[in-house]
Amino acid sequence: MAIFRSIELLAPAKTAEIGVEAIKHGADAVYIGAPRxxxxxLAGNELEDIARLVKYAHFFNxxxxxxxxxxxxxxxxxxxxxxxxxxxxxxxDALIVQDxxxxxxxxxxxxxxxxTQADNRSVEKVKFLESxxxxxxxxxxxLSAEQIRMIADNTTVPLEVFVHGALCVSYSGQCYxxxxxxxxxxxxxxxxQYCRLPYTLKDADGRTLLKDKYILSLKDLNLSSELGVLxxxxxxxxxxxxxxxxxxxxxxxxxxxxxKLDEIFSKDSxxxxxxxxxxxxxFIPDAQKSFNRGFSSYFIHGQRSASLCSFDTPKSKGEKIxxxxxxxxxxxxxSENLPLxxxxxxxxxxxxGVFAGFRVNKxxxxxxxxxxxxxxxxxxxxxxxxxxxxxxxxxxxxAERYIEVDFDxxxxxxxxxxxxxxxTGISVSEILNSEKEESRTPQRExxxxxxSKLGDTPFVIRQFNYRLSNDWFVPSSVWSxxxxxxxxxxxxxxxxxxxxEARKSCLAKECEYLEKEMSYLGNVSNxxxxxxxxxxxxxxxxxxxECAPSGKVPLMFTKYCVKYTLGMCPHxxxxxxxxxxxxxxxxxxxxxxxxxCRQCEMRVYDNR
Length: 608
What we know:
- About 25% of the residues lie in helices and about 25% in strands.
- It is of the alpha/beta class.
- The chain folds into 4 domains: about 5-165 and about 220-280 and about 285-290, TIM Barrel; about 170-220 and about 510-608, no CATH class; about 315-395, Thrombin, subunit H (Beta Barrel); about 405-495, no CATH class.
- An 8-stranded parallel barrel has the order 1-2-3-4-5-6-7-11, surrounded by 6 helices.
- Helix 1 (about 15-25) runs parallel beside helix 2 (about 45-60), helix 1 packs parallel to helix 8 and helix 10 runs parallel beside helix 11.
- The radius of gyration is 28 Å and the shape is globular.
């Protein structure tokens, strides 16, 4: 018997409508924000909308995970409990949570996934989460393939890894910069994105090393060429970041990764997709055409890179289209003859190092006429961050998803029987009681045509087994009615056959937490979270930063290193030197950088 592992492509859903399109475009599961308590406060959704998404997803055996991953205050616990019951009752498959107080609530047996906000970086942490009943663990983005493999070899819980999208410069759940600077907590879903601001970097002597650059703004993650490596390392769920991304982004990127995974599955029988059906696309997916700050594989192979950061802009650069070759008063010539379109958005870094752009008004070959002529120089690199024609395609119906079915038409003593079996083996039969009257003309072609008209249903015929002994006459409308009843019965049977995973039990003998003392980094903000950790052996617990803010502690922990990026790392070949501490300046904000070379980490403090 073949042994294989189900692989889940997990897509974001800012809204239920986007979630439906993610399923159509090949997602095996989607994650969506709860009405409250989501780590993206602007991505909350009403229960009725989530219920509609759940019904659509379950038809394809796809799942819906609801993000309820903020830390909670004591006076929010009852509301959270009530909300969890509501989510369970509408059929949500799992909750993505950070706050361990939820495990102490009297909640229904809904599966729990440990959010990346819980800072899941070590074998010991993941083993603990598995032992207390989590059904899936979202790993930190900073882990290498080898570290993922080590966790997979020592645990059995499914591991979820990010493969695409925005990168937080700090370890998730360990960033307090926004909370400190403007009282908007990332752990409460209100991050103000101080990492995307322009900073001036100075050394201890006040010497400016970089001026007005986006020093903490990382490029976006793209592991589409590393999917085989991730699967071999033990990852089971491949996650696309994008809780706030628009419809076009989700359609394109989901379809892009669906194609990549299907190509792997066609060659490697160790893996299979985690949901039913197949998607057909009415466009060619291309990740370069959706929002991106430039791409990085981050730390997937363990080694550092000096090009993780997007110094010039936190905005989307898109795809490189060439360089400026010639200039005139009203137009410019691009070195490459790429298929630009009227209405495209083109961007570049101007002579002052500032990100700028223009809209294309007209194209003649590789000559571009902007709506307003920018000041450019020959040799300037151009990017397209808005493809007008591509986005126009995505704004319309751009994919369909079908379940393959086999039809079997046979005779009974009193008429006919139509059996419909879907690709998963679910089968239904519908009887047509009818006198068998011989026809004067051949009927086979017409009967097959009438029964095959599946129209707007989510089914497509894979095989038709026609087993009638004679050309019996039955009106076309009667055959159509038979088909309609059989398809409705199959749809109902698919809905009834869906099996939702229940919450796993706590393994009492393996539930000792990995530390006896917990600092503010544990993000304990309510009495039940405190009770949870005390029950699992923690003796001393500090309050969450949000409950007892302090400017004296590190506000950000990051594997990204400014010194390494600028060629000043003492453990590589330093090209530059400076006197520390280094500081980042933005308006009245002053951030001090410290470097823990033993841990190979950078830490950020408020230096005011």
